[in-house]
Design a protein that fits this description.
Layout: E1 5-11, E2 14-21, E3 23-28, E4 31-36, E5 42-46, E6 49-54, E7 60-65, E8 68-73, E9 76-80, E10 84-86, H1 92-107, H2 113-136
Parallel strand pairs: 1-9
Antiparallel strand pairs: 1-2, 3-4, 3-6, 5-8, 6-7, 7-10, 8-9
Helix pairs in contact: 1-2
Pfam families: ATP-synt_DE_N
Function: Produces ATP from ADP in the presence of a proton gradient across the membrane.
Keywords: ATP synthesis, Cell membrane, CF(1), Coiled coil, Hydrogen ion transport, Hydrolase, Ion transport, Membrane, Transport
């Protein structure tokens, strides 16, 4: 059996997912990155998105992350985020309402830092839920959510 990745996704509330994987796809500030076994050591900042973890059984676990970091070292992948949620547990309607309620404040740059974080969390949820629903239907996923709100460093 080829080498596997040991993956751990941790949010502020605790561990969201842990297990072995053959691959992982995450979105960083530099773009999407795919991780396979024996990947070189790596660390990057995450952006609000859906992380896809493919298990040895061929199951794609899809997890919404709002921000944070990904690190890869010796086949161990750690994703640390202030918020993370399994796609199948997401309330799509609640995430849509949050985005709709905050969109105008984000666009006009009137949103507080907390509102921007809430908006980004809801975008990540919509992306993860959309990707999960498309996979369940055997369809490809096209991302159509708005861009995340920018949060100034230190906020």
């Amino acid at each position: 059996m080829p080498n596997l990745l040991q993956v751990e996704v941790v949010a502020a509330e605790g561990k969201v997912w842990e297990g072995q994987a053959v691959s992982l796809i995450a979105r960083t500030t530099e773009g999407d990155i795919g991780i396979l076994a024996d990947h070189e050591p790596f660390m990057a900042a995450l952006v609000p998105s859906a992380v896809q973890v493919t298990t040895p059984e061929g199951i794609d676990e899809i997890i919404a992350v709002s921000d944070g970091f990904i690190s890869v070292f010796r086949n161990r992948v750690s994703l640390l985020s202030s918020f993370a949620e399994l796609a199948q547990e997401i309330s799509v309607e609640q995430a849509r309402v949050t985005v709709a309620n905050l969109h105008e404040r984000i666009d006009s740059s009137e949103a507080t830092t907390d509102e921007a974080r809430e908006y980004n969390r809801a975008l990540a949820q919509l992306r993860a839920a959309g990707q999960y629903q498309a996979k369940m239907k055997g369809q490809s996923y096209s991302e159509i959510t708005p861009q995340p709100a920018k949060i100034a460093p230190g906020d």
